[in-house]
């Protein structure tokens, strides 16, 4: 398969290195990733400024690689349009340094890159794991990404759906299996800490405590219990549950 790899942690991130190293064993891989950290940028794109693209060589990786002075969604767009020759079979985004569980997927540049691919009818997978700076810790998520790709490649017909994968940071032999599940609830008690700069300007730092739901059959629930979680996503934000109800309000 021909794969486009991207992320939101930047072209030099250990996660994308591990993913490329694993996938290029069996696939044709092209890496197109931001030139630096773009975490939590969501689905933003660059409109008024030009994008600067540099082809570079990543030590230990044989695949072509490009850095882009933009967001993860930019990387997918320019990768599809300009940088990858021929048909892309699938886009993989990650391995993100930190889970993308529950409502965090709304903010995630990793997931947004995968969603951008699906908008162009190219199947996509977003892969994330717990925060860790040890390159060896990414080997298990990389292997699961490869396994999940093999499972999906012959039966993946819904080419506008994103598969969001989260892998716990434990030895592979301790992982209990793969659970296909819903997005859970993951919110924060946000507040801002204020201080004053040397120019007497007010500045604020975002703080907050995490609040997680223990609702069963969700990604938040199963990741804590040692499972790899798999959740299909879609960019259509229509609330179909109340669509008819709202229609009746406007069309009495």
TrEMBL record:
Organism: Clostridium magnum DSM 2767
Pfam entry (one): SurE
Binding site residues for a divalent metal cation: 8-9, 39, 96
Cofactor or coenzyme needed: a divalent metal cation; Mg(2+)
Catalytic activity of the protein: a ribonucleoside 5'-phosphate + H2O = a ribonucleoside + phosphate
Alphabetical list of InterPro entries matching this protein: SurE, SurE-like_Pase/nucleotidase, SurE-like_sf
Name of the protein: 5'-nucleotidase SurE
Compartments where found: Cytoplasm
């Amino acid at each position: 398969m021909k794969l486009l790899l991207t992320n939101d942690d930047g072209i030099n991130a250990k996660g994308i290195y591990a993913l490329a190293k694993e996938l290029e064993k069996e696939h044709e891989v092209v890496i197109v990733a931001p030139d630096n950290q773009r975490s939590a940028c969501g689905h933003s794109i660059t409109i008024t400024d030009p994008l600067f693209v540099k082809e570079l060589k990543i030590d230990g990786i044989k695949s072509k690689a490009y850095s882009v002075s933009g967001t993860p969604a930019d990387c997918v767009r320019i990768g599809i349009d300009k940088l990858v020759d021929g048909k892309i079979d699938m886009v993989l985004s990650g391995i993100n340094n930190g889970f993308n569980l529950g409502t965090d997927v709304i903010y995630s540049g990793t997931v947004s890159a995968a969603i951008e691919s699906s908008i162009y009818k190219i199947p996509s997978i977003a892969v994330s794991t717990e925060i860790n700076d040890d390159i060896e810790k990414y080997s298990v998520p990389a292997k699961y990404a490869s396994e999940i790709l093999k499972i999906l490649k012959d039966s993946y017909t819904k080419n506008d759906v994103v598969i969001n994968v989260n892998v716990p940071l434990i030895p592979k032999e301790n992982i209990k299996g793969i659970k296909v599940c819903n997005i859970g609830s993951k919110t924060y008690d946000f507040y801002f800490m204020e201080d004053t700069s040397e120019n007497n300007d007010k500045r604020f730092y975002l703080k907050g405590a995490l609040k997680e739901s223990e609702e069963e059959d969700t990604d938040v629930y199963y990741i804590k219990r040692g499972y790899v979680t798999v959740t299909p996503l879609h960019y259509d934000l229509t609330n179909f549950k109340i669509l008819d109800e709202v229609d009746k309000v406007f069309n009495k």
